Amino acid sequence: MVRTVYSPEYCLQYLEQYASHEGFVLGLILGQITDARENIIHLARTPEEKLADTGSEASYTSEKTESVRNLLGVSEAWVADHAKHVTRMLPGGMFVQGIFITSDEDVFEDPNHFSKIKSILNFTHKILSSNPYMFGSNPHSNERLILHMSTSTKVLTCKSMEVGSSRTTSVKPVEWKFLPKPQQWQRLDCYYEFDDIYPIIVKKSGISVKQQFQQILEAAHKTIQSSVMFIDGELKDGSDPLEQLIKKKRPKNSTKAAQDVPKSMHVSLFVPLESSLPETVEYLECDGSIHFSGVVSSSVFMYPKATVSEAIAAVKQDIIRSLASRFTMHCDALIDDNLLPEEKVCFNEPPRRVLVPVGALYLCDYLFPGEAPAEALLSVKELLDLQITESDVICDVETPADTSEFDALDRDASSEELLATPQEASQFMYITGICFAMFVLVVSIFIHYYDAIAQFMSKLLTRS
What does the alpha-carbon distance between residue 56 and residue 385 come to, in Å, rounded to a whole number? Predict the structure, then answer.
């Protein structure tokens, strides 16, 4: 059976635009696979490769670029780096599904070009799979799409190949269908609150922020995977399609226009008591603790015919992927990963999530403290090849961190250095009291026997 994918019609116009003016272009295919259907949501051109520091996070901010005129000149690491950045912007349940190419050559017939495609896809798969908490590799299939449009004939060809396998790669035909009408999506919103305390053991080199975040991420992943999901306050059967739940909630007298726009579903995650308890109890001598607190906003978009179990997996992926993205970005922005053991209180605020529109749904970006929504426009333009306005960015899904508790702790820690301990203060007051009593006693004796002392001193002076 031939694999079929569905894409919005503007993707065809996007390809034709580059095939007519740019010649060679390479980019990423973003989409979602469910048992019911495979949908493509967007095509994102890969930025032109930077001349220096091509593999780093900062490489996308450089102004020096190097134009690549054909597929053979493309760097696998550069495409993989683009895919890694874009994956952070995708909600749960959506992945980088492959690459698209516009060129004059037939990339499927030329062995050199096809070998290059295979190398790009396999290296990208390796990079995206290196961090399991990013869910960069689609768990449903290891087959990746290759979409090619000829710049001379405008003929569109799509095929798929398996990645991450040492076996001989087989190429399969894929039927690509463009939808004249916008694809309907079912939105699921969730707010998941974290409020946990983790031990800190100081090593000679200090405290690694990255290691502490990794510890939090592992614990959060274990907890969320064991949680039970309720949709609109009810526990649903995992095999039920989402559209069935939508139809049950619609009033019979609602208009057809209202029925065409499904309302957002509210998702709640509950952790069973037995899953929240540790398997073993271990006593450790700790040098401190880290208090991880905050609320993660999750907005997932699913094909309405997708099942409840697929929606559950997407929501859980989204929360963990969002945490992993923020922690990585925060650690990359640190000047020094190690905290000194002498520091009493340290506050870390990872970037917060904002939503950016892409067609009929939303992807996300992250803003560091103090950054304006305009910063998201740069990421969307560079990574997704989209032009949006500042007013399109939804910034109120998460609020900036409340630092009042940290400020109070910081003041308490600073004052500790100026104040003596209770035991030291008690000893000081005891000694001071004795000295003052002895002084008073001496003065009292002197005053009481003043006349006798004066007479004695005068006789002593007369004899001398």
Answer: 20
Q: Is 279 helix (H, G, I), strand (E, B) or coil?
A: coil
How far apart, in whole angstroms, are the C-alpha atoms of residue 397 and residue 378? Answer: 20
Write the DSSP assignment of 334-364 as a string of letters.
-S-SEEPTT-S-----PPEEEEEEETTEEEE
Cβ neighbours for 259, distance < 8 A, ≥ 6 positions apart: 250
Three-state DSSP state, 263: coil
DSSP label at 385? -
The lowest-confidence range among 23-37, 101-115, 342-356, 363-377 is: 342-356
- Phi, then psi, of 435 in degrees rounded to 5: -60, -45
Lowest-pLDDT choice from 71-75, 194-198, 285-289: 285-289
Burial category of 211 from C-beta neighbours within 10 Å (exposed 0-12, middle 13-18, buried 19 and up)? middle
Distance CA 409, CA 402 (A): 13
Cα 341 from chain centre: 27
275: Cβ contacts below 8 Å, ≥ 6 apart: 223, 226, 227
DSSP string, 180-200: SSPPP-EEEEEEEEEEEEEEE
Nearest to 32, CA basis, from 145, 127, 138 = 138
Strand residue runs (E) in 245-360: 265-270, 288-302, 338-339, 352-358
- The Cα 133–Cα 267 span in angstroms is 21
- Other CB atoms within 10 A of residue 307 CB: 20
Round to whole Å and give the CA distance between 145 and 372: 36
User: Residue 261 has which token pair?
Assistant: 């726009």
Output the 3-class SS for 228-242.
Answer: EEEECCECCCCCCEH
The reported pTM is 0.82
C-alpha torsion angle, residues 173, 179, 184, 188 (rounded to 10): 40
Q: Which of 36-50, 136-150, 203-217, 313-327 has the least mean pLDDT?
A: 203-217
Query: Measured between alpha carbons, how far is 361 from 294 in angstroms, rounded to an integer?
Result: 25
Phi, psi of 83 (to 5 degrees): -65, -35
Q: Are 355 and 364 in contact (CB under 8 A)?
A: yes
Q: In which element (H, E) is residue 32 found? A: strand 25-33
Neighbours of 265 (CB within 10 A): 20
What's the confidence (pLDDT) of residue 439?
77
